[in-house]
Amino acid sequence: MKALKKRVNEPSPIDMLRREMDLFFDDMVPFSWSRGNGGKELDTWTPTADISEDENEYVIRMDIPGMEKKDIKVNFQDGRITITGERKMEEKEDEKDFIRRERYRGSFYRSFTLPETIKEDQIQASFKEGVLKLIVPKGEVVKPKSIKIN
């Protein structure tokens, strides 16, 4: 008889509610992010992200440890940058009888709404030591032009 209770990371009702609220408000502001899973299965995990900027660019850094770059995909479409991937289970892990399991595995999905003034054809991505780094160059802000009424 085992004295320890098994614990497996599964989304709680609060996590599911948070994901639904994130998706609801996602498109309202630039760099809003979807921590949800875009309608996919709820057994996903969510890598953390930091977003910074200077006068020339935005930088998104995501912690995605335990993965290889071939398992991560970055797409840009309709003003959104989307990062997806899957952390696979280690060999023979499924055969073990876990007492506690906290390391996430499975697929993930993150999506960020970008400001309208970016240079989408110059977005760069790199992956080193478990950190995905995206550089999003800023575009020129188009100033309103005054038109004289004749």
Automatic annotation (TrEMBL):
User: Which Pfam families does the entry link to?
Assistant: HSP20 (PF00011)
Q: Which CDD domains match?
A: ACD_sHsps-like (cd06464)
Q: Which PROSITE patterns match?
A: SHSP
- List each copy of the SHSP domain by range: 40-150
Similarity field: Belongs to the small heat shock protein (HSP20) family.
Protein name, entry field = SHSP domain-containing protein
The organism of origin for this protein: Rhodohalobacter barkolensis
